Amino acid sequence: MTPKEVRAKWTAALRSGEYVKTRNKLHKLDPTGKYHSYCCLGVLCDLAVKEGIIPPAVEKNSPYIFGYKDDTLDGHSFSSIRDNDVPQKVRTWSGLCDSTGAFSPIEEFKGVKFKSGSASLNNLAQINDHTDLTFSDLADFIESEPKGLICDSETSTS
User: Fold this and answer.
1) Torsion on CA atoms 50, 74, 126, 138, rounded to nearest 10
2) Per residue of the chain (158 residues), what is the pLDDT tens digit?
3) Is the pTM of this model over 0.85?
4) For residue 96, what are the β-bridge partners?
5) Scanning 7, 79, 94, 141, which has the fewest C-beta atoms within 10 Å of its C-beta?
């Protein structure tokens, strides 16, 4: 599967209604234990698990917070479990340049301002956590391929 095909699968998953949106972590379990929720990057990690790219999520620091192993870090260190950003294998698989989905600053998207004074939202983790954009809106944003988000050879230009 090419990185472009992975991103198409990711945006389809974001629009599917299968995933409940959360903030501040890739993957959480509702305290009642009834459902799992994901940030937009967590949805990508869940797809990577389903495709065998990375192992399933594991509990981290709490029975309600889950993270994904990143073998690019010390495999014996607890910090090798990522709960806020995307493991390297998933970035390579999807073509993302950065573990948080960073992109070059833009003013706004769908009426949501990404810049206010000196503060700006310039990665997928921030816009997932600090805006009311839906997963469908985030899928549209990912498909717009803002500068700096994608690093695979299919979309890079010189």
Assistant:
1) -20
2) 999 999 999 999 999 999 999 999 999 998 888 899 999 999 999 999 999 999 999 888 777 888 888 776 544 444 477 888 899 999 999 999 999 999 998 888 998 888 877 678 999 999 999 999 999 999 999 999 999 999 975 543 33
3) yes
4) 150
5) 79
